[in-house]
Amino acid sequence: MTSAPGRRSSTFTRLLRHGFTDPSDAERFLDSPELAPVRNDPVLLDALGGTADPDLALHGLVRLLEAQETATARQELLDTVIAAKPLRDRLLGVLGASEALAEHLARHPRDWQALVTYEPRDLHPGVEEFERGLADVTDPVSLRVAYRRCLLSIAARDVCGTVEVSQTAAELADLATATLRSALALAQADAPEDAALCRLAVIAMGKCGGHELNYVSDVDVIFVGEAVGGADEDKALRAATRLASHMMRICSETTVEGSIWPVDANLRPEGRNGPLVRTLASHLAYYQRWAKTWEFQALLKARPVAGDLALGAEYTAALRPLVWQAAERDNFVADVQEMRRRVVANIPAAEVDRQLKLGPGGLRDVEFAVQLLQLVHGRADASLRSGTTLDALKALAAGGYVGRADAAQLDDAYRFLRSLEHRIQLYRLRRTHLAPEDEADLRRLGRSLGLRTEPVTALTREWRRHTSVVRRLHEKLFYRPLLDAVAALAPGEARLSAEAARERMVALGYADPASALRHLEALASGVTRKAAIQRTLLPVLLGWFADSADPDAGLLNFRKVSDALGKTPWYLRLLRDEGAAAENLARVLSAGRLAPDLLMRAPEAVALLGDGDGGGLTPRSRASLEQEVLAAVRRADNAVQGVTAARGVRRRELFRTAAADIVGSYGTESQPAEADQGALVDLVGGAVSDLTAATLAGTLRAVVREGWGDTLPTRFTVIGMGRFGGHELGYGSDADVLFVHEPRDGVDEREASEAANKVVAEMRRLLQVPSADPPLLVDADLRPEGKSGPLVRTLGSYEAYYRRWALTWERHALLRAEPVAGDEELGRRFVELIDPLRHPAGGLDEDAVREIRRLKARMESERLPRGADPKLHAKLGPGGLSDVEWTVQLLQLRHGAEVPGLRTTRTREALAAAREAGLMSEEDAGILDEAWVLATRVRNAVMLVRGRAADTFPTVPRELAAVGRYLGHGPGHAGDMLDAYRRTARRARGVVEELFYGGA
User: Fold this and answer.
1) Angle between helices 455-484 and 439-448 (to 10 degrees)
2) Which residue, 155, 459, 704, 789, is the most exposed by fewest CB within 10 angstroms?
3) What DSSP string describes 161-182?
4) DSSP 794
5) Residues 59-118: tens digit of each pLDDT
6) Dihedral pair phi/psi, residue 188, rounded to 5°
7) DSSP character at residue 620
8) DSSP letter string, 853-916
9) Counting Cβ atoms within 10 Å, is residue 879 exposed (0-12), middle (13-18) or buried (19+)?
10) pTM (2 decimals)?
């Protein structure tokens, strides 16, 4: 077959046309002695060109011919390949798709004859046929050889398209069943005395139990054992354990013929920490008392396959009823979804896009969605109780639990992804769920799936298309039929029954499913464009509501907002087209009362939740807020209108801040929750403090303008105190302030004082006038002489008082004083006045330190509300805000004069400065910071959830769960949240005892 130099042979060209990638090598193989009789036979070349990898198939054929022991055997193989098309297609198909099976044939050259048989019963073998194929097995090595021989016939039918992928998966499961039986028989033959003591049942789980096994996969099992006759139960269980362990080793261990697959018993009660074999009673007791939601989900696929099948049937009959009660468990849907999220989160970042099984839009998404629906509806509908994914999906569609079009798309995607997974594993018979990156591997895969034109490009396109479909549908699958249950359907489309819809809403966590379904009907029924968009949005929104602690409130609030804005053209368009808006809205509406209440008073603030021109959720600066508020006041006709406008800005910006806090705490599908809890505390504290300052500035301007025009007879400034001065206000905080004035030149002091007092009184009144906007309470109780002293003093009066009468607690309070509104020059002079008082040269004397400690101890004993659990009181309890702040502030009073970093009004900044100055260890500073941040987050959470301020955790379970979600604890983990708080506070109290009370 040589050709003239410089010219390609016609064979070379033909080989390229038939799909060979290395025609030169192929020519060499075709010229080998083994193929001499058929080298020019067009039938052979056409058959090779029809395989997934013609080069691989030709190489495998040559190796198989070389391995034949005699010339007669070689000729018999060649004659059969050329003359018998079924054998030719099956043999070459396997050789072109599986390097591992080609290797097996080279080691066992007569096994090709297993592919010759072509009878009807051979097309659909079951356990019985595979048991015949393994009948001559005598040891683990011969079991492996016989197993691979049976696998040859399955692979041949698969690659030739004789059977479709679900049948291939079922055959692989049946072969696994026969193999487990054979392995157990070998183990029993090796230890007949153990076999005589016990009954042992092998229960297949996972893909084997579901009749949908891969070529190479762990075979998940559970073992059930019982004593025979009057045998001692402990002895019988030990014997059963030895048999089970031996059976697992027979399948799993590597021999000269390799291994078969690992047998995995980790789905048993207590996992690898539990006994390998239990009695039926022990299994039942565990599942009745201790099993988690995922364990019932796993039992969906439980099926007795080997050993004592009667005992296996007793096991499934006893446990099956428990499976169909799983959906009644608290947080059922959330548990299943959280497990799915954990699986995705554990995929290495470099593998996410290549994961066929676990990645987004992969096989596991389809399986989880189907299993979730089975568990919710299978109790009432026995037709859904199949362990096989595609059969269950078909039944769900037939019963109206899933839309037919959605089910058809998912079925198609699942079959494609399983076929791709099968072909990847078949190549080397290795357990993997990762798509390869090498172009040659991708080409072989594409061709094996029938993609012959541009196989790599076509494969990638099809793969991405199917994963996109799954990603889009797998959550919608659960929610879409709820809308169909309350909307008009196309003729012939099955409808979710009212009871089935109720079951699904209960499983999602809705406490009042009837009301929830009425809301859905109101939102989605009708033929208007508005209803059509709602039907598109609601399946996704329902999923986000269900991910909260109060789905009922989320859906009700969404209906209210939609009713208020339904005729506004931009509202539904925003939710449909802006990627973040819909999810942000769902999080905000279902996280508690505060944010929805703020939104309901002005629903157009929904625009802030989008990605566009609404400004997003980033809090605005004090300067921009003050500019807007002052401009609104200027446009107003009087003080009432001006303050109303200022309060409206405050309401809108409170909503922006709350929404940013909620979204940051919960996270979204595209953005994980903020890991730095301190950053969220700083965001809220800074934003609310800036907003309060801007509101006071606008209110001051409005009051002065109405009463005195452009100029007040006295200079006037507002000093922020406490959390306000520290930029640490929470949602429910009052504004602690001092009011300072100084008469202008030529103005009588009495006139100036009267004007200043009128300003304060009017500011406080207008900020508390009942309206649609939340009131702003202005508290001046930290002024000299407290409630007994005048509300407003001149700067000179403050100076005289502090010089002569200032008490230790008043110096202490001044640590956080900062001008927030009014005359900037006067505010600066006030700060100059108090700096020597709050940062005294030489620090505090011991009498002052003892006085501060005495005050703190008295506050702990007197101010804690009666009946409150001190360990859970975020403000006054041990390790709470007061503990941390007084500890930091004592250091500021003692060392502020010589440590510039301590001269700050902000707790966390002062804490960091104390650490840098060596006044406390890095560990102690970290403990105090963590406790302060957590306590602040608890107070913010309670306000967000309940809509009113409190310093302790709620007692209502749903409210407590909502606080837990905000703090990062999943459904059902409120107890863990309380334990974590106590633990954090306890550690902080230990540091406080040392630094504050220990004379540091």
Assistant:
1) 60
2) 789
3) TSS-HHHHHHHHHHHHHHHHHH
4) E
5) 999 999 999 999 999 999 999 999 999 899 999 999 999 999 999 999 999 999 988 865
6) -70, -35
7) P
8) HHHHHHHHHHSSPTT--GGGBTTTSTTSHHHHHHHHHHHHHHHTTT-GGG--S-HHHHHHHHHH
9) buried
10) 0.74
